[in-house]
Specification:
Layout: E1 8-15, H1 33-40, E2 42-45, E3 48-49, H2 55-64, H3 68-71, H4 87-93, E4 97-103, E5 117-122, H5 147-150, E6 153-154, H6 158-177, E7 184-193, E8 198-199, H7 201-204, H8 224-232, H9 241-271, E9 278-284, H10 303-306, E10 310-313, E11 320-322, E12 327-328, H11 331-340, H12 353-358, E13 366-370, E14 379-384, E15 387-392, E16 398-401, H13 419-432, H14 435-452, H15 456-459
Length: 473
Amino acid sequence: MTGHRARNIVVICSDEHNARCLGAAGHPHVRTPNIDALAARGTRFENAWTPSPICVPARSSMATGRWVHELGTWDSAQAYTGDTRGWAHMARDAGAHSVSIGKLHFRGEDDDFGWTESLLPMHIVDGVGWLQGLPRRDPIPYEQASEMARDCAIAESSYTHYDARVTQRSVEWIEANAGGDRPFALFISLVAPHYPLAVMRTFVEPYLDLELPPEIPPLPITHPAVAHLAASLPYHLAFDEDRTRFGRQLYLGLVSWLDHNVGAVLAALDRVGATNDTTIVYTTDHGDMIGNRGLWGKSYMWQDSVQVPMVVAGPEVPVGVDPTTAVNLIDIHATIAATVAADEPDTTAGRSLVELANRPDSDRVNFSEYHDGGSITGSFALRFGSLKYIHHVGFEPELYDLTSDPDELHNLAPDSAYASDLTEAEAQLRLIVNPVDANDRAFASQEALIEHYGGRNALLDAFHFDHTPIPTG
């Protein structure tokens, strides 16, 4: 740890990166030398979560430092509009470059998100997003889910092409601007390893001879709210044993492709001499089940879905691994504000990752929530100490001890010995949110939107897609 303070910050955000799949986290097979090297010179937080295990709500929280229930960005059709002031506005007003390159999943380019530049942005489709997920009480069959298994291939895709363009533009921007006098807050957003599960042979080759069985084998789902989610988002039904093995090989190949692009960005910072003046954060928007429990996709409250990789490095950051301090994507806002807009008070619930790296806080509580397609009720997850509590409004809760049961195989909630823990957990949850109120507001908002677009039957004719098309500009 050196004495001077970083004047710039780069946040590299991937999409759907399961936190297990990182060499620095101990994965026995995945090759991620560039992210591992970043972790080796900074702090890697193991207790890192997304505020919501789905792209659009998670990214609205990351932009603003506020929880989904505060913003009302409940789902994949109600995206960030820029009306709530976020870190990009703060950075711009402080006189810094405030730049995004790549995927945002906000409403659209006509909104003011605070950027001085926004290059190759990917927003929700046509400014309206995934409308078919809105009728949660009477869900629209999601036939597109079968595409994830069907599209598995050793090949380039529109998504690998997009990441190549985003990486090249990022390198060009760094080489043109990072050596100047003006501080910068640079958000680089790549789409790997999000499906389609297709990647070039160079990156998947190391994994093709590996069996790669799921870390958690297929298990029966007994909780009715979770079972409904799995039935409504049936990615897994198209994955037989061979396709599961191939899909997992391709997923690791996409993680290596991601790491390759991260390496290009880090090398560009080195070339222009900006590394020593720059805080660098690597993270993702949420995880993926990657075949664990027999499931694929995100949206679940299990660790494979809500846990994210989180690495921070820079001149004020100590070297090490923090296994306990709760950090969340909402902390990105406070981290950027502290770097380039330190004179403006931060009123969010987030805290600077640099501060937390230097002063770990094992008492901090982690939080996530889900109100999007496939869910018949609002689900809220809370971690305090080693315990993880999942509150499904109107249904029985779940409780897991992540120290003794990291794979969440044994639900402790029915055990009377944990009654006091359940009471404490619900009290902690209500310090953050009234779950019934948030659930009611989410459903009311979605039902109003369904009516706005002509009712459930009209949504059947809206644009159907399994992953957001890339921008052509």
